[in-house]
């Protein structure tokens, strides 16, 4: 016999645990058991009940190579359970705290490749006295601030481990037995045994697997529903085609403004999409008053010929500096409104705000040169819309007039 622990153990809420890894769940530990003092329903863990609600109780833990002698008459409560630990060393863990002691079930140096199943005997005495908050002491005779009664608890406990009898040649192959109440004396123990007996039966392994599968499928369903709702929001309430999903860049502004136009542009061939992109860029530059700059000619020529923009035209900030003779300055405007008092049409309000048309138009040129013709068309249209600002409906009408095939494809 080896003594694994012998001393005072703090308990709270009448609980203390032995665990290989995570702490056991109370109902899960006792479901399907006859006894309510030592719960072994959670894999690799024991849930131990005490008479003392809060305090420090005498606790002793022993390990045997074989079944120990029957508990002596000094122990008023005796129950047994079976345990399959997950590690050769388990922890004695008080409620709400870290491990109090490490319990080496297999002696150091012995092979721990295959852990045996263990039979566990939990013995208790004095549980009814321990259920008294003052442990039988008269609080009237105690000095104010005297909490020594917390360390003088009348109940004490013994926990014994030994390998289950093997059905073959290896203890790890042993068939575990059901739990058993070998002795019951106190009202406290009777209460916990009755509570355990009233729990729903423990679920079988297959039932647990099925329940986990249902939870996983439900999580996947919810995740897919959230993804679909988010996609609907980002795409203006209508799910996009796979082609639209593949588009990258700043396209969601035009999506929220005119989803029918987006679908029409997406439905035409790549050549028409490229023409729309160049048309939108020219419209934006015209409104900004910079379409006729002589030095811009190489950019328009490259776009018309389906060539990449020359490097000097691919940077909107550099173009701004060249046109206006000074680098751009970024301003941030913050609007503070009480919750629930935002604009009814935040996109429309943003587009109606005063803008610098040159700043809004320049991204249209870069957008028109994008490799993906659909992205080029949608980004250039959005830049043109931003340039037109409050006159944006003119642009939306003109693009349909210039490219009637867009409407025909809806």
Automatic annotation (TrEMBL):
<protein>
    <submittedName>
        <fullName>Uncharacterized protein</fullName>
    </submittedName>
</protein>
């Amino acid at each position: 016999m080896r003594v694994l622990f012998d001393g005072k153990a703090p308990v709270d809420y009448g609980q203390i645990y032995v665990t290989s890894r995570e702490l056991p769940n109370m109902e899960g530990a006792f479901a399907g058991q006859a006894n309510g003092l030592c719960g072994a329903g959670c894999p690799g863990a024991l849930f131990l009940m005490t008479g003392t609600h809060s305090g420090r109780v005498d606790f002793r833990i022993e390990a045997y190579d074989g079944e120990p002698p029957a508990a002596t008459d000094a122990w008023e409560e005796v129950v047994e359970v079976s345990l399959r630990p997950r590690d050769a060393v388990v922890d004695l863990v008080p409620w709400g705290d870290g491990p109090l002691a490490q319990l080496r079930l297999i002696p150091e140096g012995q092979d721990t490749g295959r852990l045996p199943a263990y039979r566990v005997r939990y013995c208790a005495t004095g549980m009814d006295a321990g259920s008294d908050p003052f442990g039988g002491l008269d609080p009237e005779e105690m000095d104010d601030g005297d909490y020594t009664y917390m360390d003088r608890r009348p109940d004490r406990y013994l926990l014994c481990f030994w390998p289950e009898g093997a059905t073959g040649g290896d203890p790890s192959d042993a068939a575990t037995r059901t739990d058993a109440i070998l002795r019951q004396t106190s009202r406290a123990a009777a209460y916990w045994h009755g509570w355990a007996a009233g729990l729903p039966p423990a679920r079988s392994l297959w039932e647990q697997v099925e329940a986990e599968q249902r939870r996983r499928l439900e999580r996947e369903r919810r995740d897919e529903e959230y993804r679909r709702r988010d996609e609907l929001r980002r795409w203006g309430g209508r799910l996009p085609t796979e082609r639209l999903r593949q588009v990258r860049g700043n396209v969601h502004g035009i999506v929220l403004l005119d989803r029918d136009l987006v679908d029409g542009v997406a439905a035409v061939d790549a050549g028409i999409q490229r023409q729309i992109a160049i048309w939108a860029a020219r419209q934006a530059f015209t409104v900004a008053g910079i379409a006729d700059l002589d030095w811009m000619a190489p950019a328009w020529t490259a776009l018309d010929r389906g060539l990449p923009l020359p490097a000097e035209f691919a940077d909107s900030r550099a173009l701004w500096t060249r046109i206006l003779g000074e680098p751009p300055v970024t301003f941030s405007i913050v609007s503070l409104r009480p919750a629930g008092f935002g604009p009814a049409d935040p996109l429309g309000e943003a587009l109606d705000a005063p803008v610098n048309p040159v700043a809004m138009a320049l991204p249209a040129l870069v957008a028109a040169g994008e490799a993906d013709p659909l992205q080029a068309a949608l980004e250039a249209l959005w830049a043109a819309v931003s340039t037109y600002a409050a006159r944006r409906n003119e642009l939306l009408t003109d693009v349909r007039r210039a490219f009637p095939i867009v409407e025909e494809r809806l």
